[in-house]
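This section describes the prediction task in plain terms. A model, or a person checking by hand, is given the sequence of a single protein chain and must write out its three-dimensional structure as a string of tokens. No templates, partner chains or ligands are provided. The sample shown here is typical of the held-out split.
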Amino acid sequence: MKSDIEIAQQAELLKITEVADKLGITEDDLELYGKYKAKLSEEFLSKSGSNKQGKLILVTAINPTPAGEGKTTTTVGLGQAFGKLGKKAVIALREPSLGPCFGIKGGAAGGGYAQVVPMEELNLHFTGDFHAITSANNLLAALIDNHIQQGNRLNIDTRSIVWKRCLDMNDRALRNIVIGLGAKADGFVREDHFVITVASEIMAILCLAENMKDLKDRLARIVVAYDLAGKTITADQIGAVGAMAALLKDAIKPNLIQTLEHTPALVHGGPFANIAHGCNSVRATKAALNMADYCITEAGFGADLGAEKFFDIKCRQTGLKPDAVVLVATVRALKYNGGVAKDDLSTENLEALKKGIVNLEKHIENIQKYNVPIVVTLNSFVSDTPAEISFIENFCKERGCEFALSEVWAKGGEGGIALAEKVLDTLENKKSEFKLLYPDEMPLKEKVETVAKEIYGAASVTFAPAALKQLDKLTELGFGSLPVCMAKNQYSLSDDPTLLGRPEGFDLSVREVYVSAGAGFVVVLTGAVMTMPGLPKNPAAYNIDVDENGMITGLF
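The expected answer:
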């Protein structure tokens, strides 16, 4: 059996100009990065307007498990299946982070015969967007410390600097550091912190900005610190906005690549969904909707994280309204939720399936709260049995969901036709009446409680004293109308990763709250979630290599 990277390396790619031509995009509308990737030019984005509006399809999933779910694989395969059916579709995905690529999860190009390519370039440096975001973030950090060194005209309280440096790599040793050691000229000594680039506010801003003006307005609003009187200090006051925007000038343009079957894919931005808002850029999504009849996009991790944030943050800020949701599950993952060990998942076990399917049930109920029609799909494995598939299909239909088996990993677009037909039928016959989970005017504390109880299934929420003070402070400063961006472990509906299935009656713990004013949301840290992940005992980096001919191996 060929590996994902072998399949990708043996694929015959079209020149990206040929892929663009399918969408009526000329070479003059592209900024080429070699033969197989390009950015959409600012001129094209500004002239494309919004005269045409395709259907918006969101792909999400149950909570991730070691057994795998295949959300990106399903997204890519569905786009390829639309092409097989003669439908004009564009896929809109996030860019992979180097953190999981060299850590444990691997890349994010899909898998098998449902991948976006060039796979190695996408998973590594791609077009440099993440490097630009990292540089802009750290420029702001440097300007803050330089401002203090040069006299601190703004009276910044060095104990209340909230802006953190970032790096797109899992590096736990950088979570808590001390800077400024050495001579007087080396700066003021203070505690500092790093977050992974995909959790940074600059990443969120890039993904939510509509254009350069909106980008600069958002950058200006970033709260970097508080002064000695407790008032906010912004990036605009530090004088950082113009230089940051210059670093992000190209990064704000969506990237165009292709699938193995030459379906166009816009891959742009990459915030994590467990510690950030988990959606690709607004610019890419809207461009896809203008270019094609169907935009197929995804949101990170399970629907309790990515989909909730897609709805309550991205759609709230942009006016986007999803027409249908594809909810991805696997027989293996549901049995894992039912208590089966990873090594035993290939054996038929209907009892475990009945126990574990409650995780899928909760995600179905959650999406139904937004009044969007759902198609449940099983990402197929050879170990799945007819009895297991039939049980899940009947379970979904009893709850008003369409159901389809997906075989895109093994068969590419051909294996996604059944799913594509169900999605098309749903779009035709079931109207989306999309609504948000909570109103803007709801107090921040109640917004947190609403997400915790309605989406996660918590019985209560416990706020650390510091978190309560932060909520009061942010409300007093005028940020009370913003949505909340919950940072929570991805493996469970609760904040305890060991609680699988559908935990109930638990207490959600909130330890810290801070505002991302430029992104337009309030971040809420729950449980023990980290904004700078660490590497596992045996990171994927150990298996990655490049031979004397430049051929990369071990990347997945």
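For orientation: The two ends are 14 Å apart (CA to CA).
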